[in-house]
Amino acid sequence: MGKMFSKIDRLPEFDRDFKKLLKKFKTLEEDFETFINTQLNLYHKLNIDNNGIFKITGLGIETQKIFKAKKFACKSLKGKGVKSGIRIIYAYYEAIDSIEFVEIYYKGDKENEDHKRIKQKYKS
After folding, report:
1. CA–CA separation, 30 vs 21, rounded Å?
2. I want to staple 101 with a disulfide (CB 3.0 to 4.6 A). Which of 1, 10, 15, 76 is the partner?
3. Which residues face 54 on adjacent strands?
4. Partners of 68 in beta bridges
């Protein structure tokens, strides 16, 4: 596949979320790799929008673009395809081509992303 991102980081909070979900969804590591190589690559590199990624607005953050990925295929959730209910929140730094993962959660556990966490990290 085409060029990947120059840098990919994960906040410690993201890693905590990830570990928790990994207990429930055994294929998460592999699914996450696939997500980066397909969904993120399509959206940010090839400018292909398949309605799987949305910019989060109304956070009062000017300096950073924050995105929510709604299409995430998880093999542990059989028969659901990309509508697994797993959500990923991340920041994309276009200028330096870097991605920073902020939060991962399962819609069955909570409805929405943690705005407080996002604002604490990216407040202008």
Report:
1. 13
2. 10
3. 68
4. 54, 89
Q: Give a yes or no: residue 85 inside a domain.
A: yes
Task: Transcribe 61-122 into DSSP letters.
Answer: --S-EEEEE--B--TTSTT-TTBS-EEEEEEEETTTTEEEEEEEEETTT-SS--HHHHHHHH
Distance of alpha carbon 66 from alpha carbon 3, whole angstroms: 21
Q: What is the domain-level CATH number for residue 40?
A: 3.30.2310.20
- Both tokens of 71, joined, read 């299409």
Q: Nearest-CA neighbor of 24 among 79, 86, 81, 76?
A: 76
pLDDT, tens only, 27-56: 999 999 999 999 999 999 999 999 999 999
Per-residue pLDDT reduced to its tens digit, 54-95: 999 989 887 789 999 999 999 999 888 888 999 999 999 999
